[in-house]
Structure to design on (118 residues):
């Protein structure tokens, strides 16, 4: 079974930057939608950003102008560049890949911890 493997989470000071990566552990049909979600303690999982195969992106209002999602189709990897980090960005970040059609799937990564200190 193919797994999504995230990396890049860390402890960082407010105002700092991090880049998260998410790649598949094996061969997989390219996803239609790649996304990043996050879940803070005691809160529901929320959408952070998505990018579709054509390159269009969507962001939560709380991260617009600070976070950038991108994908490398050749490497089947999705990234989340996070700048201007705030303490309220502290959460476990999960990547999600979706594909529709005959070879459909809906995969989640194991999560990577991002902690922003004030």
């Amino acid at each position: 079974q193919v797994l999504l493997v995230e990396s890049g989470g860390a402890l960082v000071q407010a105002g700092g930057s991090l880049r998260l990566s998410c790649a598949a552990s094996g061969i997989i049909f390219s996803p239609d939608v790649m996304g990043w979600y996050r879940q803070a303690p005691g809160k529901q999982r929320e959408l952070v950003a998505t990018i579709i195969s054509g390159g269009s992106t969507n962001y939560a209002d709380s991260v617009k102008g600070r976070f950038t999602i991108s994908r490398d189709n050749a490497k089947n990897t999705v990234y989340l560049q996070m700048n201007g980090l705030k303490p309220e960005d502290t959460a476990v970040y999960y990547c999600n890949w979706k594909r529709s059609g005959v070879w459909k799937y809906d995969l989640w990564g194991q999560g990577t911890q991002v902690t922003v200190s004030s």
